[in-house]
Dihydroxyacetone kinase subunit DhaK
Amino acid sequence: MKKILNDIDQLVEDMLNGMVAAHPNELKRVPNTTVLTRKKSPESGKVGLVSGGGSGHEPAHAGFIGDGMLDAAVAGEVFTSPTPDQVLEGIKAADTGKGVLLIIKNYTGDVMNFEMAAELAEAEGINVKSVIVNDDVAVEDSSFTTGRRGIAGTVLVHKIAGAAAMRGAELEEVKLVAEKVIKQVKSMGVSLSPCTVPASGKPGYSLGDNEMEIGTGIHGEPGIERTSIMTAQEIASTLFEKINHDLDLASGDRVSLLVNGLGATPLMELYILNNSLSALLKEKQIIVVDTIIGEWMTSLEMSGASITLLKVDDELEDLLLEKADTVAFKRGV
Amino acid sequence: MKKILNDIDQLVEDMLNGMVAAHPNELKRVPNTTVLTRKKSPESGKVGLVSGGGSGHEPAHAGFIGDGMLDAAVAGEVFTSPTPDQVLEGIKAADTGKGVLLIIKNYTGDVMNFEMAAELAEAEGINVKSVIVNDDVAVEDSSFTTGRRGIAGTVLVHKIAGAAAMRGAELEEVKLVAEKVIKQVKSMGVSLSPCTVPASGKPGYSLGDNEMEIGTGIHGEPGIERTSIMTAQEIASTLFEKINHDLDLASGDRVSLLVNGLGATPLMELYILNNSLSALLKEKQIIVVDTIIGEWMTSLEMSGASITLLKVDDELEDLLLEKADTVAFKRGV
């Protein structure tokens, strides 16, 4: 294992400190926790948005703290849910009296710990609601999940719910729009090479020299098929077909795209994949209203990419295109 | 070799089309060239900024097209300089009558082809000046270079010269501020694993299971030393010492940092590296006025990172912090 780090036991600590050192005007730590929050508290009267989960998916989630997205992010150890007491600290940091929405990726540990934290916060008088993102169409049930996994589509939930909260929506409204996104956002990925969890020191799985896997999870959970390496066109078409089995897009429908690198895939290849995908959508007369491309929900140094499609209506498109100013994602300068 | 692509011969073409498809309101292609330029021409009366070089370093350089940075970028084949006729097209696309500054990374092919293009443009009546970035302190002379190589520090030249041009500076002034940056910006990197140029199909070099190289170039050019894997602290300290041999920073000096991933290194590790580096600078009472962290000047899927330090004065700091709105880099929402 070759990684740039100091002490494996201090990895998350060092990362969080390194983030605050890099973005001292945007981020601060809640002392003695793994919670990052805004440097300046949002005005009271805004619903707070909190997300988080295991580390190793950076910039998710702390990179999305800022205007128009999240108010706090809770980091667990690599690929491990943060504990309820940490999530509780995140909720407290984000609450300005108008309640907090938790955006949880659908993994058993995350769901359990975030919901336990919600109960603890409710007991302290904070109004908390939560939504669970399960955008990965690859498999039902998996190593760490009952039902579908939550992957890169989560970033679009942050974006749209964050815009609604920034505009002053009430907690119940923010929750409803987040649920609307979750219903319409579908993702799937391919992996070309695995990642290595630092504490284990070994790749989570292996792939042959000319082999790839379709539908791998962001923690290396098994996908649905191994095959020899496909072209960008074949990958775009395979992932689109599986996603569209659920979305059932018709000519004239509008979508937002997110093409996501898993960690080690050059941006060049993501653009080539986007070229194939956008040609395919054009052929089907599906209208792309927005494309976000880069590394947003990574899996350490896994090589591969995922495609996310969100079917938008006027409300979702408007919120999606609203400005945002976070560490990792900025829009509307 | 496992990469997401269609046809190796169409790689740059597919990438450029994929970029325009992703950013249709920001970028357009100059037909029948490998030039990307702004979708909307900048107002006349602004000095044009053009950069480019071999592909494989994305988001450099086309990702930096937009307000406050570049007006056009010229893409060559992977790790291969674009030809003079292509660069000429870039110059024409960026010129609004106030002249064009070429920002060239110091590689023999780039310098020759960009300067030949400048002559061709001058012959057509366009006022062209150029600057050559040579920020890599690792080695003098290398596989493709006489003198020092140009690497990630180039992005800070784009940023600062771009801000000056946006504010209405004349060509000569923009050139002077670019040269001031070049004088004060120093970089060096480490590689943990190599990249594979698609046309060759094989990694450019090999490193042992526990081995890293200090000072590798962004095309895989040899560095100065191979060693067993160092900690983040050791990497930060080794690179800083070499950089500071040139910059000669003293307590109270102000710097801007750029921590750059080479392609396959998780953002987590870049933040850990930044944590070590910023602690070291704090100890030396060097003031960090700005930190830019992520993948800005990559080497396909090379694993590793580079550190760039720019010693700033009031003028450079002010221009650095000016707003920018490009595909890959946004500031000042």
